Amino acid sequence: MAPAIAQQQPQVQPIGVGGRKVVDEVSGWLRVLDDGSVDRTWTGPLEALPLMEPVAPYAQPRDGHTLHDLPGEPNLRVYLPEMEAGDGARLPVVLHLHGGGFCISHPSWLMYHHFYARLARAVPAAVVAVELPLAPERRLPAHVHAGVAALRRLRSIALSASESESEDGALDDGPAAALLRQAADVSRVFLVGDSSGGNLVHLVAAHVAREAADDAGSWAPLRVAGGVPIHPGFVRAARSRSELETKADSVFFTLDMLDKFLALALPEGATKDHPFTCPMGPQAPPLESVPLPPMLVSVAENDLIRDTNLEYCDALRAAGKEVEVLINRGMSHSFYLNKYAVDMDPATGERTRELIDAIKSFISRH
């Protein structure tokens, strides 16, 4: 069984490399050593470190919700909003696929916790966050497989009776699984992912839709009802205008990070024109042939990759897909994950409220 989800946290001081040589580095975030190991000690500005602190689960309600961990393959973290007594309605499910360029981050971090706890209450929904594998130890498509496996776990939990064994061989009969089984309507699952997790929204949704088309019973009763890529990491090998002209204003997203993370995460020898990062490009299957649920795509006006995000939206429309676009005016990449800016800067707080309201509205209509 995989370790409990809340145990990981970045270290403040660099660990010794024991004479090993650094062969590649993403400033602040990770160093690849000559023996193939990876050091993810945080070496950037210390003021960013609190956003990466893990939040432990709690079964007693806080701020209108509870938080539970479901160890397994993959690990899941579950936010359940408090419901009115006697309200037997099942909740839609938000499956969260975290960002981090496929190479870093963890769903227990404060930056994710504050947003998804708030989203669980606002919709209301059962929010299930997935602990994804990390590159370069596990390159794509490992992350896609983990997203699909998380949906399989949800289906298994929904179908299993108490003390029955789930399809992946793990016992999903604990109290957290029972609470999720009782609360969740798996016929209304919405994939929500930030940055590289936005890529996974597209890739996982397409994978599941293809399997369901081939065998209608393979996923029932689970249904992916919609997808919400937030500032997805869709790029091309050639720089876009926004990449060339927009100035990075955060240690959490720079062009150097974008380039190096994707070089570490994509299959060996692939460029950013690969379908994993450019689903609207010539190397990808025509979007007309890709089965997708309705999409709500959030694009930050000041994002380095704004132009390729908008290109993806245009390509979906041209392919006849159902897509809505929310422009986060005046905001940068993943702005809403910075809890301190959300709490203290009125503009960031307002744009975050608009994003949550848009997701709530999208879910209510699908």
UniProtKB/TrEMBL annotation:
Domain Alpha/beta hydrolase fold-3, chain residue ranges per copy: 94-336
Gene3D superfamilies xref list: alpha/beta hydrolase
Tree of life domain: Eukaryota
SUPFAM superfamilies: alpha/beta-Hydrolases
Coiled coil: none
InterPro entries, per the entry: AB_hydrolase_3, AB_hydrolase_fold, Carboxylest/Gibb_receptor
GO MF term list: hydrolase activity
Pfam families cross-referenced by the UniProt entry: Abhydrolase_3 (PF07859)
Protein name from the UniProt record: Putative carboxylesterase 17
Organism per entry: Zea mays
